[in-house]
């Protein structure tokens, strides 16, 4: 493979668009494809070469995919023409959050076509993807990882190699399980404090300045100060990931009671019309279950508005 590989990017959605544009901004030769022509045009405005077909994007040295779920990955990699269009000796870098099962199927197909397959799910959200502050977990052939590393450093601040098989998939699901359960706990904690007559800002200050003040708590407390529930990662997306987590647990013959309960919380949010709201809308569900309305932010009131 060339010292500076040509890059193809398939899937220019919430994550794929800003990441591919960032790669283009550092001067790399990258061509992008999406079924949505408007997304291709947006990527082109950021320096990504438009690919007229999936095969055109796939016929490069290193091909990234950024797809929404197992079904989309199956359609592209197993039922579609991805591997037929890829060069022997090329590297496929799959960045999506998908199940270990479908990923293992893709690995077998890649091996059959002489393609090195890297599982490289990214951690972070679309709001920070353009900043280069994502992280990625990678598993697959070590030599392919070494080739990927300079490119990964263009759009991530940390890269962790974990092994030859599906280790990166389990790492991403483990991280997302912690995020989901933390969001559920945060919702209940805030509402318990409101029931105890704490002001809205007061309980946020308590959480961020206590032993539980993790980076996620700080990050979400900032948006909760103004009750900003615009989605960085939606309740529906979190429910999808929890389905993957519970499925992976069942396949590993282990119980995941917290994951299962948290999935029901997100199911309730979706049922209440909050599917496209940010995943921290767990606060809203907890308020509803507690019989509370929205607080009056102008008075720092934790009681009914």
UniProtKB/TrEMBL annotation:
Q: Which organism is it from?
A: Xanthobacter dioxanivorans
Q: Which domain of life is it from?
A: Bacteria
Q: Please state every residue range assigned to the domain named 6-phosphogluconate dehydrogenase NADP-binding.
A: 6-158
What InterPro entries does the record tag this protein with? Answer: 6-PGluconate_DH-like_C_sf, 6PGD_dom2, 6PGDH_NADP-bd, HIBADH-like_NADP-bd, HIBADH-related, HIBADH-related_NP60_sf, NAD(P)-bd_dom_sf
Q: Name one Pfam family in it.
A: NAD_binding_11
Q: Where is the active site?
A: 172
SUPFAM superfamilies per UniProt:
6-phosphogluconate dehydrogenase C-terminal domain-like (SSF48179), NAD(P)-binding Rossmann-fold domains (SSF51735)
Q: Does the keyword Oxidoreductase apply?
A: yes
Domain 3-hydroxyisobutyrate dehydrogenase-like NAD-binding as annotated: residue spans = 170-285
**Name of the protein in its database record:** NAD(P)-dependent oxidoreductase
What are the protein's GO molecular function terms? NAD binding; NADP binding; oxidoreductase activity
Keyword set, alphabetical order: NAD, Oxidoreductase
């Amino acid at each position: 493979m060339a010292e500076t590989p040509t890059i193809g990017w398939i899937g220019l959605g919430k994550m794929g668009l800003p990441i591919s544009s960032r790669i283009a901004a550092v001067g790399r030769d990258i061509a992008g494809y999406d079924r949505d022509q408007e997304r291709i045009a947006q990527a082109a405005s950021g320096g990504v070469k438009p690919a007229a077909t999936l095969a055109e994007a796939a016929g490069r040295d290193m091909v990234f995919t950024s797809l929404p779920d197992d079904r989309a990955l199956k359609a592209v990699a197993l039922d579609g023409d991805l591997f037929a269009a890829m060069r022997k000796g090329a590297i496929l870098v799959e960045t999506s959050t998908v199940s270990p099962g479908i990923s293992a199927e893709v690995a077998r197909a890649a091996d059959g076509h002489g393609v090195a397959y890297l599982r490289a799910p990214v951690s972070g959200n679309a709001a920070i993807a353009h900043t280069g502050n994502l992280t990625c977990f990678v598993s697959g052939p070590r030599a392919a990882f070494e080739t990927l590393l300079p490119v990964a450093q263009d759009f991530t601040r940390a890269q962790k190699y974990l092994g030859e098989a599906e280790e990166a998939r389990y790492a991403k699901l483990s991280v997302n399980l912690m995020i989901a359960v933390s969001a559920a706990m945060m919702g209940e904690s805030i509402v318990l404090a409101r029931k105890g007559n704490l002001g809205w800002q007061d309980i946020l200050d308590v959480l961020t300045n206590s032993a539980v003040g993790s980076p996620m708590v700080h990050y979400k407390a900032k948006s909760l100060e103004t009750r900003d529930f615009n989605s960085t990662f939606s309740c529906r997306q979190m429910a999808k990931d929890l389905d993957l987590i519970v499925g992976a647990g069942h396949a590993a013959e282990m119980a995941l009671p917290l994951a299962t309960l948290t999935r029901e919380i997100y199911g309730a949010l979706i049922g209440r019309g909050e599917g496209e709201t940010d995943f921290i809308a767990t606060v809203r569900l907890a308020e509803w279950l507690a019989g509370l309305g929205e607080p009056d932010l102008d008075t720092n009131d934790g009681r009914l508005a």
